[in-house]
Amino acid sequence: MDPFLLGTCGFSVVILLLMLRVPIAFCLGSVAVVCTFLFYAWPVDGAFDMAGGWRSATTILTSNSFDFVHSFELTMVPLFILLSQVAFHARITTDIYHSARIWLSRVPGGLAIASILGCGGFSAITGSSVACAAAMGKICTPEMLRYGYGPRLATSSVAVGGTLGSLIPPSVPFILYGIFTETSISKLFLAGILPGLISIVGYIIVIMVWVKVNPKEAPLSNEVLKRGDRRRAAMRAWPAVLLFLIIIVGIYGGVFTTTEAAAVSAATALVMGIAMRRLSMAAILLSLRETAYQTAMIFLIAFGAKIFVSFISLTGVSPWLIALVQASSLSDWTVIAILCLVFLVLGMFLDPIGILLLTLPVTVPLVEHMGLDLIWFGVIVVKLLEIGLITPPVGLNAFVIKAVTSRDIKVHTIFAGISRFLVAEFVILVLLLVFPAISLILPNSMN
């Protein structure tokens, strides 16, 4: 069978299965195995060889399984997930929000801004956008509603703030991107810091303008603070600051590798949680169980993607795409714009990790051929995944916020609020595209 035709058919079948809501891991893995079997069993100029095809397909399957499981960098995934679970159950992550809420209580839109900062702090430890939206949605949104905030602002600010988990390190998408593209995960983490901070500033500007135009959306708090409340609130955030410094300063200063930083920060969070008497044995066991569950889910998806990458490399789809771009004489900017559009469209229907692992086999060879920096492209991809989390009709974070808050709030109300933040998202995306130095200045200065 013609390799290019087989590759095109395989890719189309994956898209079809995803549209039918088949789990991404089974889509990628099953299609890759069947198509690899057909590739070897049905040669263009030979007879159908079932035994040979099955032998070749199983060889690729087992070799990829071995290489993937024995990847040392992959161990940081369960470690960072464990860190997120322990920090959440020890209330280390939510302390950031409570500290910001006290300091910003008299600022117009202060609770919404505190929610953004709380989500940023949560993301700086956990690295999961959906987990961030779910956890902070239970805390921030009801409190904003209790103080009279409009439902659109109260829900959309947390939904948008939750997306920071994809960009601010540690980030699971960055880890998977680094493993599959063989780029430095440490540099990817550092590359996400400035874009993440710029995103936070952009969201805060949106809130300030929103409240300025419509003050009724965010009434000022009449809460009376006692002397020393701000100082005590700031002190509550020290465990989160310490964990962030272990990860970022440790990596940037060359004290730890990324995997070592994951292990040290997870152990530190566990010790602090026990020392502050915030972690019971039941909470520790729950953290371990959730870590095992999430790790298995991510590994299964990545395992299917690893087999799919091998299949795509056999078919010649990537060289064909590169040749097509060369023949069309499109500029690099035009190609990047098309790729961004593809990511945005996929983001409306698929989950971020599924999009990432589905597109990497095709997009990365093209970007490498154009001579563009893969670290910079990784930041662009993760930013696009971030936008996809809040883009209708299937903006995952909007539905997460709907699930954890009042049933009286409709999904279209959340998306109506999100639409204001999408303007800032696209402005930030353009800045990252036009000025690659925003993403590259920190990783290029790394020791």
Automatic annotation (TrEMBL):
One of its GO terms (cellular component) is plasma membrane. Keywords: Cell inner membrane, Cell membrane, Membrane, Transmembrane, Transmembrane helix, Transport. Pfam families: DctM (PF06808). InterPro entries: DctM (IPR010656), TRAP_DctM (IPR004681). Residues 12-438 form the TRAP C4-dicarboxylate transport system permease DctM subunit domain. It is found in: Cell inner membrane. Signal peptide: none annotated. It comes from the Bacteria. It is a multi-pass membrane protein. The chain crosses the membrane at residues 12-42, 111-137, 158-180, 192-213, 234-255, 261-286, 298-323, 335-362, 374-401, 421-442. One of its GO terms (molecular function) is transmembrane transporter activity. The complex comprises the extracytoplasmic solute receptor protein and the two transmembrane proteins. Part of the tripartite ATP-independent periplasmic (TRAP) transport system. Belongs to the TRAP transporter large permease family. This is TRAP transporter large permease protein. It comes from Oceanibacterium hippocampi. The gene is siaT_35.
